[in-house]
Amino acid sequence: MEAKQALVDRIYDAAAFPETWAAVGQALADEVGGTGALIMQHKPMPMPWIVSPGIERLVADYVAEGWADDESYAAPLLADDHPGFRAEAHYRSPEETARMPMHQHFLEPRGLVGGVGTMIQGVADDCFQIAIEGFTSREQAFAASNILDLYRPHIARSLSLAARMAEVRERSVLDGLGMAQVGAAIADAGGRLRLSNDRFRRRLGSYWPLRSAQHAPLRHALARAIGEVAALRSPRPGGVQSLPVAMQDGSAPFVLHVMPLRGGAEEVFEHRGALLIIAETVNRHTPDSSLLKLLFDLTPAEAKLARSLAAGQTLTEAAAAGNITAGTARVHLRSIFSKTNVTRQTDLVRTLMQIAVPEAMA
Q1: Of the given ranges (47-56, 172-181, 225-234, 297-306), which has the lowest mean pLDDT?
Q2: C-alpha angle with apex 188: 229 to 292, nearest 5 degrees?
Q3: Rounded CA gap, 279 and 355, in Å?
Q4: What angle separates helix 2-16 from helix 138-179, to the nearest 10 degrees?
Q5: Average pLDDT in the 37-58 region?
Q6: Is the pLDDT of residue 188 over 70?
Q7: Who contacts 168 (Cβ-Cβ below 8 Å, separation ≥6)?
Q8: What domains appear along the chain, each with residue ranges and CATH number?
Q9: How far from the centroid of its chain's Cα atoms is residue 345's Cα?
């Protein structure tokens, strides 16, 4: 009983510490004799799979061999509205499973049968799928589904809470930028806008969601920029891309900066994508150190040095201002180059200054 309560406690802890979900999934699989667990978020947008250690190789082979594109395996579970865990054996007879290519060519050669899964509808649009895989008999899978049902209410509450906490973290970052008079938004790797602050919506209110024909050039350019930035394939120094936006309502033009979510930013927003920042005439200041740390995963010392360089100081002047030696400054600078994907100080300053308004708009 104490062991079960300890597992329930770990499930709820994962709401606050999402990096532990893989270990929690593995503990659930161990509890019912499975090899490992897979957690997927379907809505409001697909997220990277959380794979527990026990099935990392299995899932890698599953994807590499193209079975992830075969929707027939999980189709009954997705179509069913059963409020609990179901084994594949609940939906298919032994004869039916034996005829399925994935069983013939993927599961059976590994000595496995179908897994156990459930769909969890959280608050708002959250929808999660959990699968426990690696069973060696139908009877084992049947028994596992009954045991996992005892944990399912706790898993559902924790996943829903985790989703809400992640959204709160994201909104707090965007709202903080808004307080600094910076319009900002988060886009996923597919170019879909996930969250935005009030200033971003006000400034792009007559444009977004860029559906009309007159917005087509900006829509296409933005989609390409987000795709390149999210995949870290941007040809620009530091991975930042900048798109000029000329408003047709007579308001001042601005530049839309598309920046990669990576390092510390990727951890905050928990997915690969892009941060969109509107640069306008109120953004004359050099980038704040906290923003630099978030965007490029800089240490506090690196962020302070980078901000000094962006303000126009030489490396010697920046080192003196930071009370560090010139040698230490050079070490920090090499690290900054690596994290911002540039090789020259002039390119670094140009990249950092893109976060503020371009001189042409001053």
Answers
A1: 225-234
A2: 55
A3: 7
A4: 30
A5: 81
A6: yes
A7: none
A8: 2-165 (3.30.450.80), 167-361 (1.10.10.10)
A9: 30
Burial class (CB in 10 A: 0-12, 13-18, 19+), 71: exposed
Take residue 1 and report the two structure tokens written for it: 């009983």
Q: What is the pLDDT of residue 101?
A: 93
> What secondary structure letter does DSSP report for 34?
-
Length of the chain: 362
Distance CA 11, CA 159 (A): 9
Tell me the chain's radius of gyration from C-alpha atoms.
25
Question: Beta-carbon neighbour count of residue 26 at 10 Å?
Answer: 20
Number of neighbours of residue 194 by Cβ within 10 angstroms: 15
Amino acid letter, residue 336: I
Q: How far is CA 69 from CA 73, 75, 102, 236, in A?
A: 10, 12, 11, 34
C-alpha to C-alpha distance for 361 and 280, rounded to whole angstroms: 7
Q: Cα 286 vs. chain centroid, distance in angstroms?
A: 27
Look at the block and give the residue holding tokens 């013939």.
104
